[in-house]
Specification:
The chain is mostly helical. The chain contains eight helices and no strands. The two termini are about 30 Å apart.
Length: about 190
């Protein structure tokens, strides 16, 4: 676990509450939205600054998506009633949209109108997705999964985040792609 993840867990314990994975994901949402807003507000400047910010966004988004898809979503799907499972499927589909827009954004000329449009669409997707998770999915997950299991999931989430390098300012280690790539066939089985 990275020092950043350890500090978050320690701070929550000192305050007398155990962290749960949902709080970690909410913090990720806020950070990713902040970075995307920063990207949308950038005018001119050095291409290297844009590229560095894009790489940071890509790393954080891929890590966050992997955490949700590999840890939270399967637990959510197992724990909730049939009537709430649509939230799982919607969330997975929204991740699929981000997986389309993000690579396109990364390949688009930084100064173009297309880049600005794709950056805005990505921000809109992330804002919608995080709002829906925080207002609908997370409250149901908290109730269905329970505090004890959420604490256990939190530790797994922090470990995956630390392994990916998304908890730091760097871009992660050489194994990042192995950690972040999910097997599409595995998700079709779920």
């Amino acid at each position: 676990m990275s020092r950043g993840s350890q500090a978050k867990v320690s701070a929550a314990r000192e305050m007398g509450s155990e962290p749960d994975g949902l709080a970690l994901l909410k913090a990720d949402h806020a950070e990713i939205k902040r970075l995307l807003k920063q990207l949308n507000e950038m005018e001119g400047g050095e291409a290297k600054d844009h590229e560095d910010l894009l790489n940071q966004i890509e790393t954080k988004l891929k890590t966050h998506t992997a955490i949700e898809e590999q840890i939270l979503y399967p637990a959510f799907k197992r724990a909730v009633q049939e009537g709430d499972k649509h939230l799982y499927f919607e969330a997975v589909e929204e991740h699929g949209l981000v997986d389309i827009v993000l690579p396109e954004l990364m390949e688009t000329d930084l100064g173009s109108h297309e880049f600005k449009a794709k950056a805005k669409v990505l921000l809109d997707l992330v804002e919608h997705h995080s709002e829906e998770e925080e207002s609908e999915m997370f409250p149901r997950a908290k109730k269905a999964i329970g505090a004890k299991e959420l604490r256990a999931l939190s530790e797994r989430m922090a470990e995956l985040k630390s392994e990916s390098g998304a908890d730091s300012d760097g871009l992660g280690d050489d194994d990042e792609d192995d950690i972040l790539d999910s097997d599409d066939d595995e998700w079709e089985e779920r």
